[in-house]
Amino acid sequence: MDRRRTTLTLAALSGAFVLSGCAHAWFTPTGTPYPPRPDDCAIEVYTTGIPDREYEELGILEGESGWFDGANMSELLPEMKVEACRAGGDALIIHMSQRYASGEDSDDKIYSSATVIRWVGPRPRS
Predict the structure, then answer these.
(1) Which of 99, 92, 7 is nearest to 58 (CA)?
(2) pTM (predicted TM-score)
(3) What are phi and psi of 4, to 5 degrees?
(4) What is the reported pLDDT for 20?
(5) Strand-pair category, 55-66 with 24-29
(6) 22-119: which CATH number, 3.30.110.70, 3.30.10.10, 3.30.1330.10, 3.40.50.261?
(7) In this predicted structure, what is the pLDDT of residue 97?
(8) Are 60 and 113 contacting, i.e. CB atoms less than 8 angstroms apart?
(9) CB contact burial 22-61 (16+ within 10 A = b; e otherwise)
(10) Beta partners for 53?
(11) Taking a C-beta distance cutoff of 8 angstroms, is the pair 68, 19 a contact?
């Protein structure tokens, strides 16, 4: 009976992993470390140009999405925002997003890189 329960548990966990998609992001610190903010903190996103207020760079954020989640930024950007919050950031400056094919089946993926920044001075009121 225990063997059957273990097999069912492993099958359920495998299914959950497959259904969870494959968007993930990782942060590499390059500046002063700050305490993490809540995972759902507000993160501004800049895709053209840089902010017109003073900021400091905290590090580089990279992310990849693909396989089951359709290789699009709508799946990847929320993961990148969570990592920016965990790094103590206020905003992301997206440098590039690139779609590419990977693997034997040429599954579409998207790769993106950004700089995590933190505003210098008092935070604006929300």
Answers:
(1) 92
(2) 0.73
(3) -65, -45
(4) 44
(5) antiparallel
(6) 3.30.110.70
(7) 72
(8) yes
(9) bbebebeeeeeeeeebeeeeebeeeeeeeeeeebeebbeb
(10) none
(11) yes
Cα–Cα distance for residue pair 57/118, rounded to 1 Å: 7
* H, E, C per residue of the chain: CHHHHHHHHHHHHHHHHHHCCCCEEEEEECCCCCCCCCCCCCCEEECCCCCCCCEEEEEEEEEEEEHHHCCCHHHHHHHHHHHHHHCCCCEEEEEEEEEEEECCCCEEEEEEEEEEEEECCCCCCC
Q: 37-86 pLDDT, tens per residue?
A: 999 999 999 999 899 999 999 999 999 887 554 555 678 899 999 999 99
The whole-angstrom separation of Cα 34 and Cα 124 is 18
Place of tokens 């954020």: 61
The tokens of 30 are what? Answer: 């390059």
Q: Where are the domains of the chain?
A: 22-119
